[in-house]
Amino acid sequence: MKALELALVAVLLASTYIVLSSRTITLKLAVENEYWALKHEAYSLARLLADSEILLHYLEDGVISEEEADAIRVLAIALSPPNTEMVVRLVKEYRVVVEVSTPSYYDCTTAAVGRVVYTHPLQGSYVIEVGLGKV
Amino acid sequence: MHRLLAEIACTLLLALMIASIYARQVSITSLMVSEIDVSLVRFVTRSRLFNVVFKVSEVWRVVEVYEKLFNETLSFKLLPALNLTLAPTPEGVRVYVRGWSGLVVPFVNISVSRIRGCELLEYGEGVAELGYVDLRMDYDSSDIYVIFACIERLYTFSLLAPENLVRHWYEWEGGLVRNESRVERVFLLVPHYRAPIEANFTVVEGALDVEEEPGTVAYLLGVEGGWVLVPRLPVPYNPPISKPRELFKYLICDLEGVGYALVVEVGG
Fold first, then answer.
1. B34 CA to chain A: closest CA distance, Å?
2. Partner-chain contact A40 B8, CB within 8 Å
3. How far apart are CA B188 and CA B211, in angstroms?
4. CA proximity to B71, closest of B55, B47, B100, B94
């Protein structure tokens, strides 16, 4: 009978462990899937911004004014997927030329970044970085 | 002896009961959630939706994969990158421009061509500075309207046409138009141009092989008794199934060197 009791305790412990770990795994899977979807979305938006040369249009004179940064923010927010927080960075030679974001981006629990290199024939190469996240 | 057997049986029953409760909990709470997410991943992988730049045939293939394999498990929409709507006003028409999040997209160049048959009746253009632009042209629901929106090199379009003029005759696998009635003339709708352009075509195995211009989004076919519109892309594709949105991404559909921005929404 001792053996049976021990076996019962073992079964109980094992099943508790399985349930708890499966719940953790599910949570991780959900986060993983959310991250995976955000990464696809961020990359596609970065690619859209690069191919359409929207951001580079503001860089024709080489300087981004406050008004231009606001215009970029409005445009990027309008194009970003519904119910997501976003950040857009334009990087040239390791220097961030423009960074615009929604106020809650840095409070996101999950976020993914998509990067695209765009080479302008006259102005050189830029990295367009789009981060999308969910609070 | 009987007592021992009864005790063993009771213990086994208890263990079985506990196991079944836990198994049920695991199957209901966890595995169902993973299953839904897996079908999204499988759909994206099979339809090659992980790419951003697509050819015409690849866009149709995405729709085909969805219709064949995932139309019961997922919802799917293929739309222009911007939400373009046209409303008649006393002075003409007003074109509204929104992102799909519902927010205003500022400073969008808009042009609208009003077409009847193969002829351009009216053309208007302007800049939607704060989400709309008013254009001086008449509205008639029996005409075809080509709305073209661009911001720098972000191009997108919307075709508005009465249902009785639209024919889904485009065969994406061969790039041919499988006409069901005799075609006399073919015109192309290219949103970058104001008016439809006449195109040369040859008949290949009973279908039309049309010489497209870069950026052709639809064909106007002159058939017996009038004109019909044959869209080249399955846009908008908006089946009634609605599920919570899981993926919202942009595609660039390359039509002989001209890229039109589209949006894909997948729900699961």
1. 7
2. no
3. 9
4. B47
